[in-house]
Each structure stands twice: as C-alpha cells, then as structure tokens.
Design brief:
Layout (H helix, E strand, L loop, with lengths): L6 H7 L3 E3 L9 E2 L10 E3 L12 H6 L4 E5 L5 H7 L6 E5 L3 H16 L3 E6 L4 H12 L5 E2 L8 H9 L7 E5 L7 H9 L3 E4 L7 H4 L2 H9 L9 E5 L3 H7 L7 E6 L5 E11 L2 E9 L4 E6 L7 H13 L22 E5 L4 E6 L5 H13 L6 E6 L8 H11 L5 E5 L3 H6 L9 E5 L2 H11 L5 E5 L7 H8 L3
C-alpha cells in the first residue's frame, strides 16, 4: 500500500478511542513491561494472576510511546497523570484488551491484504515448519512470520500488527490446548493455505484424548478462504478425516510412505560436529534433492511441508539455492553446538516435549554414529492429564543405547519404579530440577560426550544448555 495507515483510523474502525499524537503502522508491541523498548506500544492485559494495567507506569519509564489498555481502567484523571506532556499515544479498548487487539489486527490485515495467509498447526513441528516456510518463501516474496512462539490469538494479533505494509506472504502459527482456540483465530484471520504437521497425544489436559486433539486441529479448515491444505499423509486418522473435504480445496499430503509429495531416502548424520540431513522429495512433476542442517530424519517432514507450500505457489524450487537459505534447526528445537576443544556435541531440543517428539529425538541419538558416550538429559512431558505416568514409563521402556540417562522432574518417579532392573539403559540418575541437573553434568561430563537435552519448556532445560555451551 502506498499511503501510510494511521493508528487513529484503525482504532476508530475497530470501535476504540484514540488519544494523543497519531502514528503509523506497523507497531512494535510488548505485553511484558520488562521487555518494553524505546518506541514500543505496551499492551496491558488482565490475566488470571497478573493485571498488565498495573505496569503501565513501568512501561512508560522503559520508553514506551504508546499504551493499549481497557477504557474502564484508565480514567481521564489517570491519563493526565500518566502523560502530563501529551506525548503518549493511548488506545482505549471498549472491552477486554485481547478481543480488541484481535479486532485491530483483523482490520489491519484487511487493509494490507497479503497474497496469502498461511496458517501452521499440529502437535509437533509447528515452529520449525513455520520457519522453514518463511525462509523458502522469503527468497521470492516479502514474507512476515512470528518473531517468537506466537501461536495464540494474542500472538497472531501481535504478529499481524507488527507486519510491514508491503507484506506479500503472512505466516501464522496456531496452537491450541482447548477446543475452540483455533476456531477463534481462523474466524479472525481467515487463512488461505493451511498446514497440519501431525496429530498426536499432546495437551491432553484440555483436549482429553487423541480424538479431541484431532477435532481441535481440524478447526483450521473452518476458514472460508482456504484454498490448499498441506498435511501429514502418514497419519491415517488425520488423512481419513481430511479426505472428507476432498473437492472443497486442494489437498496436498506429505509423507514418508505416500502423498502428493513423498519423502524418500532420508539420511541424517553428523560430520565433524556438523549436522547433515539429506533426502529426496518426489512431486508429481519432478524430484528434488534436499540438503539441510536440520536435526534428525523426522524433521525432513517439516522441511518438505514448507517446500510443498512453495510448490503450490509455483516457485521454481530447483533454481532456488536451498543450501544458502540457512535451513538449520532452531534454538530449543534440535540446534547443535560442537565444543571443539572437548569434542562435546550438545543437542538443544529443550523447548517442548510430548511422547512423539521425545521418542523421535531419542531415536535419532540412538542411531547416530558416535565414538564417545551418549547422554540424554530428559525433562518431564507436561499437559498429558491422567496418562502422564503411562507416557513417561513408555519412554523409559523404549530407550536403548544411551550410556547416561539424566531424568529431570518429579513425573519420572513412578515411571522409574515400574522399570525392571537390568534394562538396556545405562547409568540412570534422577534429579528434581535443572539446577541439580547442571551439577550432575559438571561432575560427570567427559571429552567426547554427545549430550541431548530434551523436555517441556517449564523444565527450564535451556539453562542446562546455556551452561554446557559456555564451555565454547
């Protein structure tokens, strides 16, 4: 768009009140007063335990030039006290801030009108798929995607309100832990291309069972603008459910065993501390040889889904230098650090964990050709409901060829008690938290070790990774 979009115009259109100096979009937004930078807009949200309106003063002290807050929380008197000089832009929402922010994002999206709105969901691999899609599409289009794991209605709204006005491809990540969450995002932002990476047992506390997870992910197809759905063809339950929509949109499955795009001969190895993932991807009209630095053969599915988006958009994939796009694993999602002096390899898969992703990571480590010891630092898997103990036990029962198993968290206790002595696992240690895990590693790590760190985000195992890589 050639003309600048003014905030006051968007606020008025969304039913809010604007006070102070007008500014142009996009916006740099922060929802945590501790992360506010100079020039940011601070979004005050009433949470279950914390009310962001209590931190407006802190945000202004940190350099915020705008505030988005509920009208009922900011009286005229308080506005005058907060901004006696009249230099701050205030956006006052007539209802809760989150709902209003989503309405603003919807209005801005309609003004920008990118060529495609791409939504990625699934139980595993969402963020990696999203980032691979961004890197590939950015070779030809002006592309915007979340700067962090923004996969809620709030996160999608922040991404949209921060996108440049010349955006051609918008990528959104949509997660869910309860029914209806994706429906709400889809209704607001109406994606045109959808990706479902997989459906597996995750967030069972809110979704109850695998059927509940499937139903939640299928909410993506409620978008009236959906033209193409790319999905995990190998998941039979997902495939059967999606086939009901045959004819309403283009269905492009991706899988190791079949689909519109078929993955063939996946191979992962480590060469002098560097990861190398290679596979062939067969489209109906040609075959693509793919090479990247992603962690494990399972991540070839994420990359293939991204390539399938590009294929649908008629990008000349064979002429794009994929090796130059930085197709590497993300921090917390398989990123590797090789400590040259001690020949120690640290695999950082610490951001999240469910039974499928935990087993996938362990399977890769067990198959890797490595001269030294293999150590697995495993945090607990969260939000599994009443099946928590069963899933942790199943992980322990399938582990083999791991020399040291360091388990972090209380949920492992019951699982350990059910495992008979003399199993194929090597030395087993359980600790309560990441601090104790760091202590154990400091005492037991040796030159030549390979160390996998995997767990749910609440385990804070990224701090274990940070401690290990400080050696570098």
């Amino acid at each position: 768009m050639s003309d600048p979009i003014m905030i006051s115009e968007l606020v008025k259109q969304s039913g809010g009140i604007f006070r102070g100096p007008d500014r142009t979009l996009p916006l740099s937004l922060a929802v945590d007063s501790r992360t506010v930078g100079k020039g940011d807009f601070f979004v005050a949200i009433k949470g279950e335990h914390v009310d962001g309106h209590s931190y407006i003063g802190d945000a202004l002290s940190s350099g915020a030039t705008g505030i988005i807050a509920e009208q009922d929380s900011l009286s005229e008197e308080k506005l005058g006290m907060l901004d006696p000089g009249g230099t701050i832009s205030f956006i006052l929402a007539p209802q809760d801030t989150l709902t209003f922010l989503a309405r603003m994002a919807q209005g801005y999206l309609e003004k920008i009108c990118p060529l495609e709105v791409i939504a990625v969901t699934g139980s595993v691999g969402k963020t990696t798929t999203r980032e691979m899609t961004k890197k590939i599409l950015s070779s030809r289009f002006r592309t915007t995607s979340p700067v962090s794991s923004y996969n809620t209605l709030l996160g999608c709204s922040l991404t949209i309100l921060g996108m440049p006005c010349n955006t051609e491809m918008l990528i959104l990540e949509m997660g869910t832990s309860s029914p209806g969450e994706i429906s709400r995002m889809v209704a607001a932002f109406r994606p045109t291309i959808g990706l479902i990476t997989d459906v597996t047992e995750a967030h069972l506390q809110g979704l109850l069972n695998l059927e509940g997870v499937l139903r939640a992910k299928m909410e993506l197809l409620e978008s009236p603008m959906m033209k193409c759905l790319i999905y995990n063809w190998d998941n039979i339950q997902l495939r059967n459910e999606i086939n009901i929509f045959s004819g309403k949109m283009k269905l492009a499955g991706v899988g190791f065993h079949g689909g519109y795009a078929r993955i063939d001969y996946p191979e992962f190895r480590i060469n002098e501390g560097e990861p190398l993932l290679h596979f062939r991807l067969h489209f109906p009209d040609y075959t693509l040889n793919v090479q990247s630095r992603l962690f494990g053969t399972h991540q070839s599915l994420c990359l293939s889904m991204a390539l399938n988006v590009a294929h649908y958009l008629d990008l000349p994939l064979r002429s794009i230098p994929l090796h130059a796009l930085g197709l590497d694993s993300l921090p917390g999602r398989g990123a590797m650090t090789f400590l040259e002096e001690e020949k120690i390899l640290v695999i950082d898969d610490s951001y999240n964990a469910n039974p499928q992703s935990m087993n996938a990571a362990l399977n890769v480590v067990e198959k890797i050709s490595w001269n030294g010891r293999k150590i697995a630092v495993l945090g607990t898997m969260k939000e599994l409901g009443e099946k928590t103990a069963i899933f942790h036990e199943e992980v322990l029962r399938r582990i083999s060829r791991i020399d040291v198993l360091l388990l972090v968290g209380e949920e492992w206790k019951e699982a350990i008690s059910r495992i008979p002595e003399g199993n194929s696992t090597g030395h087993l240690i359980r600790v309560s938290n990441y601090k104790e895990a760091i202590g154990v590693l400091k005492r037991n790590t040796c030159p030549g070790d390979l160390i996998l760190v995997k767990g749910s985000h609440s385990n804070e195992l990224e701090k274990v990774v940070n401690c290990l890589v400080k050696r570098k």
